[in-house]
């Protein structure tokens, strides 16, 4: 996780909610003096609207208010996706423990009783803003890690692990609803020669082009992923520092053999029409594709994958640049 920037009050907006104007004025003055940005609401209903529109970083919420009290406001805030993450600090003259407990149960992060000591209130505000920043940063880092773990670095498409998990989901859906499901394995022909002739970097570019062309031939609901893991590719070819393989799997939900054949044919043909221009060199690639369609004997996605792999082998044996079943 990256280090957080120094804490600057002016980076934050605080929504102050109180039905008594005098209280509002006092709080806003305190926050202003400390450098925070402020906005305010004089009723529960207005607070909900302001929170949605201004998306403040923190809310100072009065508990006792006519019509809609603070507890109800807090509960509503926590129900809305746009406002649920905003920390709420209750500010109230009510000192009874049951109020305090209810406040925390409604989703508040803190509870300050009036009359409050200004430095204490400011210290609590700063702590909660800082905690929220850290939490947001962690969440972002987690999302990014999840994305990296699921993506093939070179081409940006799902990697083996994630295409398998997507494929399994689709396969199970097909089993449950007895719908069709097809799978393609695409392998670049004589790719070793491309690397040997033009170098590994241009080989990488050719793989990216191949993915782009394939994606253009597929429907939005189809998935393509890279098949070989780095480890497998290394074990098979003994190359060092390679990023992955030149085999790809395409998942075609709700597609029967005829449809899958058409899609595969489309990919195969499109590949021969595009070239990669590198300085004065023109690089062209062809692919071989193995197809398998779900039949009731298949228990696992791996069963279909095995058949697609056999079909791919046949396509290679029969001269490459072709589709086989
Ligand atoms: P075939 O028509 O039988 O598939 O021949 P091929 O040369 O494509 O087959 P083979 O599987 O023997 O070779 C695959 C080559 O793909 C070898 C490997 O160095 C290369 N390769 C695998 N991953 C990458 C990559 O990420 N980038 C580059 N540039 N090359 C890769
Ligand atoms: Mg190949
Ligand atoms: Mg291969």
List keywords for this structure.
alpha/beta; 5-stranded parallel beta sheet; 18% strand; 11 helices; binds magnesium ion; 5-stranded mixed beta sheet; 325 residues
Describe this protein's structure.
The chain starts with 12 loop residues before the first strand and ends with a strand. The longest helix is centred in the middle third of the chain and has 33 residues, at 118-150. It has helices spanning 21-34, 44-54, 70-79, 97-105, 118-150, 160-177, 191-198, 200-217, 230-237, 257-273, 301-317, and strands spanning 13-17, 37-41, 58-62, 88-92, 110-113, 181-188, 223-226, 247-253, 276-278, 281-283, 287-293, 323-324. Strand 11, helix 11 and strand 12 form a beta-alpha-beta unit. It is built from 11 helices and 12 strands. The chain is elongated and about 85 Å long. The chain has 325 residues and is α/β, with parallel strands linked by helices. A 5-stranded parallel β-sheet has the order 2-1-3-4-5, with helices on both faces. Strands 7-8-6-11-12 form a 5-stranded mixed β-sheet, sandwiched between helices. A two-stranded antiparallel ribbon has the order 9-10. Residues 229-244 have low confidence and may be disordered. Helices cover 50% and strands 18% of the residues. Helix 2 (44-54) packs parallel to helix 3 (70-79) and helix 8 (200-217) packs across helix 10 (257-273).
Nutshell version of this structure?
The protein has helices at residues 21-34, 44-54, 70-79, 97-105, 118-150, 160-177, 191-198, 200-217, 230-237, 257-273, 301-317, and strands at 13-17, 37-41, 58-62, 88-92, 110-113, 181-188, 223-226, 247-253, 276-278, 281-283, 287-293, 323-324. The chain contains eleven helices and twelve strands.
